[in-house]
């Protein structure tokens, strides 16, 4: 499902226009991004936890040339699904 399909489905389910649904999704993504940039954790009940993790610098090897290089540390987003979400996936089977 792409963004356009998601927004269309959300608009129908919430009985709002596509423009309103687009605005709501954009606002949600913007707030989520701002919070994650500030290393804040987002706990969405029944869905999961979004947070950021720091990856340490590491040594890597180019498989083609065998040359070693240092990969710098970086911050990456992380998601942990809630138990309720996991249960819903297990019910499908």
Query: Order of strands across the biggest sheet?
Result: 1-2-5
Spans where pLDDT lies below 50 across 5 or more residues: none
What is the helix content? 40-55%
Distance between the termini: 21 Å
Average pLDDT level: 93
Question: Please, could you describe this protein's structure?
Answer:
By secondary structure, this protein is of the alpha+beta class. Helices cover 45% and strands 29% of the residues. The protein is built from three helices and five strands. The chain has helices at residues 3-14, 18-37, 83-92; strands spanning 42-44, 48-55, 58-61, 68-71, 74-81. The protein has a three-stranded antiparallel sheet. A two-stranded antiparallel sheet has the order 3-4. A hairpin with a 3-residue loop joins strand 1 and strand 2. Helix 1 (3-14) crosses helix 2. The two termini are 21 Å apart. The relative contact order is 0.12. The mean pLDDT is 93.
What's the arrangement of secondary structure elements?
Layout: H1 3-14, H2 18-37, E1 42-44, E2 48-55, E3 58-61, E4 68-71, E5 74-81, H3 83-92
Antiparallel strand pairs: 1-2, 2-5, 3-4
Describe what is shown at a glance:
This protein is α+β, with helices and mostly antiparallel strands and 93 residues long.
Keywords for this structure?
elongated; 93 residues; 45% helix; alpha+beta; 3 helices; single chain; 3-stranded antiparallel beta sheet; 5 strands; two-stranded antiparallel ribbon
């Amino acid at each position: 499902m792409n963004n356009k399909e998601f927004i269309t489905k959300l608009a129908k389910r919430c009985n709002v226009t596509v423009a309103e649904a687009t605005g709501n999704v954009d606002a949600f993504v913007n707030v989520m991004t701002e919070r994650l940039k500030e290393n804040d954790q987002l706990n969405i009940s029944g869905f999961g936890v979004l947070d950021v993790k720091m990856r340490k610098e590491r040594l890597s090897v180019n498989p083609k040339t065998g040359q070693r290089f240092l990969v710098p540390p970086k911050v990456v987003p992380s998601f942990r699904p809630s138990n309720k979400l996991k249960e819903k996936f297990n019910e499908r089977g």
